[in-house]
Amino acid sequence: MFDNNVFLKDSCRNYCEQGKVAGFELATNITYYRGIPLSMVEYIKVAVDGAEVPNDTIEISVDRIDWFTLKEAETVTTYKWEYGEPLYIRVPGEGLSKGEHKVRLTVATRTAYIPVPLEGIKERTVVIE
Amino acid sequence: MIKTCVSLYSLQDEYLNHRMDLEQILRYVKECGAQGVELLPDQMLHGTPNPPQEQIDLWNRLIAETGLTPVCDDVFLNTNLYKNRTLTHRECIDLLIDEIKLAHKLGFHLIRLVSMVPWWVQEPLLPYCEKYDVAIAVEVHAGMAFDVQATNDFIKEMKRLNSRYIGLVIDTGIFCRRMPRVVRNYEVSVGTSPEVFDYMDSLFAQGTDFHQVLLKTGYQYPDELKAAMKCEHDKLSVPLLDGYENYPFEVLDDLIPYIKHFHLKTFEMTEEGPEYSMDYKALLEYLHSKNYDGYVSTEYEGNRFTLAGQPMQEKKQVAMQQAYLKKCLQEIQG
Q1: Could you say which of B1, B106, B140, B294 has the lowest number of CB atoms within 10 Å?
Q2: Domain tally for chain B?
Q3: Do A36 and B16 touch (CB under 8 A)?
Q4: pLDDT tens digit sequence for B231-284
Q5: Do B59 and B185 fall within a single domain?
């Protein structure tokens, strides 16, 4: 139902720190029709070429300034993921190798009245040059 | 007098994908001829329930410039703010007090509380409702309507307190006479068996609905449905189909004095006039006969059933529904 909100086009790329690749990042809109505090992100999964990235390595941010692991985000209520604004997701490490990759993003949010989380999934082909 | 309104929920995809900003959206609602507007602050304002002053100023400026009436403020209660526990009663009430104060700053006199908001918030909130002149009304929504404990508990407490500051918002998804075909088309496009929808259609043809069937069977799927479920995907999609109910309008007879507002849910306005699954004209005639005095608000939800690759119809559907309502109300009210 919210699959179309997931994984913004052209948002997946390697990022650098101090001149070196420090991981890869991507961005997504919310799988809901309103903004929520970060603590209401139920889960996020990233898979590259069919292999899921270890969950404890994923970090998220609404402003690319303060980053939280998914575990840390569970208590973050001062920052809101606004409707119409992206959530930034990054996976620190070696980044994606050159060439074509299938990157699949799964995003689920807790909602105020629906007992099951609202999930959205999208896979994109990403080319790293 | 019945007046028209548009819920900005209807234009969510335009906003999400930055094709329209709040200003363009409010001007469009005005162009469509609506008298009032309904807002989800969590959707189109930032930092709610305590937004920066600029957000409040922007809203109030646009309301002044368009001349739209701020009719209904759609509020949510994040009882599951944390993963490891549910909010306490006091935490819930404090959050809602902030929402009442915000509604007041935005010029609203009515808050729609999302379905399933617990009944016990009413009495502690009442002094704040009175102080800020903001009523609170829980939404009666298909799948969460008159057979659901939380809704009935809310209604019982509402009647006990009997204040003009406490009431109900009715979502017309409880008055579906057919299964929306946009739901069928979308679900089939993502893998649901068409036979499942043939079954749903047969229930409506018999004057009932899937929700009623599940109530009677204790949430067991009847054999006819099991036979219609041909693939694994059906196990995921069938539970989503109990949110289309087929109540008679008369279910509202005793509740009319408490009803503050209506969401005129729209799945698909058709070229020939009426909405595909609901009979708005008959509903408006019923409300007129009961002397309902308030707004009916366009709530387009076909957006989430837009087929991949097809253009979003939000603006067109809102304009079509507003035009149809205007025509009906002219005939009914003169």
Answers
A1: B1
A2: 2
A3: no
A4: 999 998 999 899 999 999 999 999 999 999 999 999 999 987 799 999 999 999
A5: no
* d(C-alpha B153, C-alpha B119), whole Å: 6
Measured distance CA(B11)–CA(B102) in Å, rounded = 22
Mean pLDDT computed over every residue of chain B: 97
Coil, strand, or helix at residue B191?
coil
Is the full-model pTM beyond 0.90?
yes
Residue A52's domain spans which residues? 3-128
Query: Rounded to an integer, what distance in angstroms lies between the CA atom of residue B142 and that of residue B136?
Result: 19
Chain A partners within 8 Å of B9 (Cβ): 33
Q: ipTM of this predicted complex?
A: 0.94
Q: Round to whole Å and give the CA distance between B104 and B225.
A: 48
CA distance B82 to chain A (A): 6
What is the CATH number for A117? 2.60.40
A5 touches chain B (CB under 8 A): yes
Enumerate the residues of chain B whose CB falls inside 8 A of the CB of residue A34. 40, 42-43, 76
Last residue of a domain, one of B240, B263, B288: B240
pLDDT in tens, B35-62: 999 999 999 999 999 999 999 999 999 9
